[in-house]
Amino acid sequence: MSVRVGIIGAGVSALTCAQQLCKLAQVTVFEWGRGPGGRTARKRVHIEGSDVFFDHAAPYFEATTDVFRDGFLRNMHERGVAAPWNQTSETGVDASPKWVGVPSNNMMCKVLAEDLEREGGSIFYGTHVRSTQFVNGEWQVTAQKRQSEEEQEYRFDMLVFSDKLLLLPNQYAVLSPTNWGPLALSTSLTSSMVAVLLIALKESIAPASTIIYTERPGSILKMLIHDSAKPGRSTTPDLWVVHSTQEYAATRINQEGSFDDESKVLSDMREAFFAAVSPQSSPGISFETVFAWDHAQPDAASRMQVSHLLDRERKAGVCGDVFMEGVANGVEAAALSGEALGNAMLQLMNEGSSRSDL
């Protein structure tokens, strides 16, 4: 009988891990969102009769290791869903290219999800895993459908946690701290928080190759990303993704992960945005919104240097961009972590198969 593997999350690390495991196992992925993406997720907005998409999570990624460039990135590039972005900054052209998904960042996860389904794997979107426990040699997973709120029980031989929040004490945790064992992450792991402005303009106000950093004294903005300038994007309307500084976000995001005064945040960020990119005029706005990203990026000082965690006895693992500190960041770290965990779990399967043949 095929090994049953459950994977919680459908981001880069989860789907890269699934890509390895589907070679020998029956893989089931649970994703609370409407589609795959994780940190490469996009936000769909209906503006003036058509849908447009913001890369509202990770705005781009880099490739610093040979294994990532020759593996994940080469695959995505050859399939036409990743491309280099020749951007400029306030200090001039960046010689180290940034990369983006085409026509949106989540396309990389989308093709990985399609690959998995072609290999016989299953992905349940709009499904929130509520709890997990290891009982009588197998993992029991309780998941709830977002729309119907119906709960269902699943059983797996192996389990993958693809986000640190699934384990650390917080509202998203699905495994009790008393059951962490070898999967225990440091409780000192922290993440930065960011207020994000998504804004669509009726006309372009900057060169098509612009990415602007505004970490200047007194500015509440850390990064302005010209989404419409990325390869394969529509230029009408003109889309921007704007990140605040962590200091500003800390004064506006409450303990529940939302804004105390959303209208004030929108006003502040809109004013700072136009001051940075169009101080002489304020072009018409087709759409604008802000949201609180309370776990935007894992803080470098608290990330883990290993590639993953593995509980060999209970056959479970943890992967994600919180790993690979000092080696890679963001999408690259997630891909490397997911692949490493997948290979480690394949080895466990092979070891178990060899023992059963004795």
Brief account:
The protein is α+β, with helices and mostly antiparallel strands.
Word description of this protein:
The protein is an alpha+beta fold. The protein has two domains: 178 residues, FAD/NAD(P)-binding domain (3-Layer(bba) Sandwich); 108 residues, Polyamine Oxidase, Chain A, domain 2 (Alpha-Beta Complex), CATH 3.90.660.10. The chain has six helices and 20 strands. The strands form six sheets. A six-stranded mixed sheet has the order 9-2-1-13-20-19, covered by helices on one side. It has a five-stranded antiparallel sheet with strand order 15-16-17-14-18, with helices on one face. A three-stranded antiparallel sheet has the order 10-11-12, with no helix packed on it. Strand 3 and strand 4 form a beta hairpin. The two termini are 17 Å apart. The mean pLDDT is 91.
The domain tally reads 2
Fold-level CATH name of the largest domain: FAD/NAD(P)-binding domain
Biggest pleated-sheet summary: 6 strands, mixed
Average the pLDDT over all residues and give the rounded result: 91
Instruction: Provide a count of the helices.
Output: 6
Helix fraction? 10-25%
The rounded distance between the terminal residues' Cα atoms is: 17 Å
Strand content: 25-35%
* Superfamily (CATH H level) name of the largest domain: FAD/NAD(P)-binding domain
Q: Uncertain runs with pLDDT below 50, 5 residues or more? A: none
Query: What is the CATH class of the largest domain?
Result: Alpha Beta
Output the strand order for the largest sheet.
Answer: 9-2-1-13-20-19
What would the principal axes of the Cα set say about the shape? Answer: globular
Helix/strand class: alpha+beta
Number of strands: 20
CATH architecture assignment of the largest domain: 3-Layer(bba) Sandwich
Give helix and strand order, one letter per element, not per position.
Answer: EHEEEHEEEEHEEEEEEEEEHHEEEH
